[in-house]
Design brief:
single chain; alpha/beta; six-stranded parallel β-sheet; three-stranded mixed β-sheet; 12 helices; 48% helix; binds NADP nicotinamide-adenine-dinucleotide phosphate
Length: 324
């Protein structure tokens, strides 16, 4: 069977970590681009990308990667997206689509937009899929399959360019939804950013316990704590930037969270079993809803995946989603 014609001639990937390398692997597997040009900040990563054969060309410098590409995807931490846009702006081909994968969208629109020339289509995006691992070795082609990719085009974006980027992400297996950047940031603050903050807090708190208790925490970590440690192992640079750039939305959600935590604290102190039971019943229904719409497996999580299980693609029950 013949493959459909590629959607893009040349894909430039600026940053080839977990997300950039997964895009490279998936785009190549699906034949959606004719050629991939990639770059990363350090010579060591560029060398590794070349060794892994993730791109047709690995070049030094963001401008060199972007020149001549009809799709440029910036896959770097949110905090450097503006600086990268300033570097590539003068070298972009007229009519090119420029996108990103950042976990925060308002800041990306604000920081990248002013550096991109007229005639270039800027359509920010966020694939809501990830793991706690980083770097070009961590990616895999199936990362986006069945996951959401949220596009946040500016109000005056060209609908044809939005459709083309939608087709790209759909070809990689993602479900695509479009929404305003501010709404994206509010939704992700509660579904992703706050859970990460809680994980970073609880693992840090456990680490500060007395020595004897701390060793027991590690030993008995299956009871919920283990899942927090996985999330708390996520990349420090990426998550620092998320909290610095989505400050308002995270603080708003943190306010509601603190109020709810106070209510549960009061219920425990007063021995109010009914309040606790009702709360836990409500949250159990939310979990069942997530399983029902196919965003996680109903398989019980008994423990860590077996070391002999294949790593790529990850079988569904272990296809963890860290960002997101
Ligand atoms: P990562 O694995 O740490 O990779 C980041 C890449 O960016 C590396 O190749 C790094 O190069 C490169 N880079 C950093 N600064 C650069 C610069 N100034 N110019 C060129 N390249 C530069 O990160 P990631 O997990 O793929 O995350 C990338 C983006 O995706 C972030 O904005 C994040 O918010 C978003 N995201 C992450 C997840 C997730 O779960 N991890 C999910 C969805 C979206 P070096 O290796 O040479 O430093």
């Amino acid at each position: 069977m013949t493959k459909p014609a590629p959607l893009f001639n040349r894909l430039a990937l600026i940053g080839v970590g977990l997300i950039g390398s997964s895009i490279a692997r998936a785009a190549r597997a699906k034949g959606v681009v004719r050629e991939i040009v990639a770059t990363a900040q350090s010579a060591a990563t560029r060398r590794r990308v070349a060794e892994l054969g993730l791109a047709d060309q690995v070049v030094e410098g963001n401008a060199a990667a972007a020149a001549g590409a009809d799709l440029v995807i910036v896959c770097v931490p949110v905090g450097v997206c503006g600086a990268v846009a300033a570097e590539i702006g003068p070298y972009l081909m007229p009519g090119a689509i420029v996108s990103d994968v950042g976990s925060v969208k308002g800041a990306v629109l604000r920081d990248m937009g002013p550096h991109l020339p007229a005639g270039v289509h800027f359509i920010p995006a966020h694939p809501v899929a990830g793991t706690e691992n980083s770097g070009p070795d961590a990616g895999f082609a199936a990362l986006f399959v069945g996951r959401w990719c949220i596009l946040t085009p500016p109000a005056d974006a060209d609908p044809a360019a939005v459709d083309k980027l939608t087709a790209f992400w759909s070809a990689l297996g993602a479900n695509v939804e479009t929404m305003p950047a501010a709404h994206h940031d509010l939704v992700l603050a509660i579904t992703s950013h706050l859970p990460h903050l809680i994980a970073y807090t609880i693992v840090g708190t456990a680490d500060e316990l007395a020595e004897v208790t701390r060793s027991e925490v590690l030993k008995f970590s299956a009871g919920g704590f283990r899942d927090f440690t996985r999330i708390a192992a996520s990349d420090p640079t990426m998550w620092r930037d998320v909290f610095l750039t989505n400050k308002e939305a995270v603080l708003e959600m943190l306010g509601s969270f603190n109020e709810d935590l106070s209510q549960l604290t009061r219920a425990i102190r007063r021995g109010d079993g009914e309040a606790l039971f009702n709360h836990f019943t409500r949250t159990r229904a939310i979990r069942r809803g997530i399983v029902q719409i196919g965003q996680d497996s109903a398989v019980p999580d008994f423990g860590r995946p077996h070391p002999d299980l294949p790593v790529e693609p990850l079988p569904r029950p272990y296809a963890v989603s860290s960002d997101d």
